[in-house]
Amino acid sequence: MIKITDVRLVQERKITPCEILIDEDRIEQITAPGGLLSVNENTVPGLVTIDGKGRYVSHGFIDIHTHGGGGSDYMDGTEEAYLTAARMHMMHGTTGLLPTTLAASVEELLDTFRVYETVKDQREGARFLGLHLEGPYLSPNQCGAQDPRYVRNPDMDEVRFLCESSPWIKRWTIAPEVPGALDMAEYLRGRGITPSIGHSDATYEEVKEAIRHGFSHVTHLYSACSTIVRRGGYRYPGIIESAYLLDELTVEVIADGHHLPAPLLEMVYRFIGPDRTTAVTDSLRGAGMPDGDSILGSLQNGQRVIIEGGVCKMPDRKAFAGSVATTDRLVRNMITLAGASLPEAVDMQTRIAARIIGRSSDQGVLLPGRFADLVLFEDSIHVSLTMVGGKILFHEGMKL
Fold it and tell me: Could you tell me if 20 and 114 lie in one domain?
């Protein structure tokens, strides 16, 4: 057993002093301070006691859109790539994530599916909560850093084949205006997969139609998203405006401090609100790595990019290619740049993230009987300890 004392639980937008008792991989009790006095080394042989010294504790941070980190990308197609990225993000407070693919050939997607199957139950780093497929069914005009060679319209035979090849797909980013996307969304909903609007030129009316067919989320709002256009003198709102107006949609933002400036993050927080928003890293293999050349996508078929000044850029430096953020940085930025309170920022990175991917029943909140996936951190959101399934995988500046 592990007993954690003198911590402040940040959960469901409240801060509550508490003590936590962990038995094996699960939360056993969460009590008020002093509630675990009878649980000690004399009554429980081998008990490990952790003095939190007033630190915050919450469910571990959840990242529903990440491509890799620590020099590895999930498209590399190796177990070590998956494990390296999961370990690196865990050190920054992430206890659950969705490995995310890029537009690629069917063969490459099948390769990463096979690797996921072998590593999905690992406990060396952040827990794998399912797969996020980003593409290849995207708008050619909104590729962003996606490789246009692989961008195509949905083919339902191909979609069914990919879904039947992996039961672990949790969400799929698609441009809803491309031919076949609406039928695909209905099929995905029937399999419990969340269709997400992204890399898209959809208009407001097309977004409303997409919602009717099962779309419920917007991938990295403002990035590769349509906005107001003029046609024949008339103005047509796009995805960005739809996200503000349509309560049926949840959104994610890349809160690395580069992709979106503070005023846009504040607008999302104030007018879409913390109930419908989570932050994502959209991190590439360069997360946790020094500045310099890197690769977007797999080592074999990826594109050269540059890590510079805390963000990943295309070689001509005219556009970002993705972020090198970690979830502790997301929480910090939602507080310092967007104006969220600490409980709100943590809630967006835990409970709301879990709800968006359909994992509210077992992720996002610390409760007795649930997995002991938690993080201890200081006022600056500096992570002191990360635990996954009751196992302490990282600690810094703490006496254990």
Answer: no
Task: Give yes or no: residues 177 and 213 share one domain.
Answer: yes
| pTM assigned to the model | 0.97
3-class DSSP state of 205: helix
CB atoms within 10 A of CB 17: 13
Kindly state whether residues 301 and 325 are assigned to the same domain. yes
Residues 148 and 34 in one domain: no
Q: Are residues 276 and 380 in the same domain?
A: no
Confirm whether 250 is domain-assigned. yes
Q: Residue-wise over 124-136: b if at least 16 C-beta within 10 A, else e?
A: ebbbbbbbbbbbb
Does residue 262 sit in helix, strand or coil?
Answer: helix
Question: Domain check: are 381 and 326 in the same one?
Answer: no
Question: 172 CB contacts (<8 Å, ≥6 apart)?
Answer: 132, 133, 188, 193, 194, 195, 196
Please report whether residue 281 resides in a domain: yes
Q: Would you give the DSSP letter of residue 266?
A: H
Q: Could you report the per-residue pLDDT of 138-165, keeping only the tens digit for each?
A: 999 999 888 899 999 999 999 999 999 9
Could you tell me which residues are beta bridge partners of residue 68?
A: 73
Domain residues for the domain of 27 are 2-58+366-395
Buried/exposed 152-162: b ≥16 CB within 10 Å, e otherwise? bebeeeebeeb
Distance CA 210, CA 175 (A): 10
Strand bridging mode 127-128 / 131-134: unpaired
CB atoms within 10 A of CB 163: 18
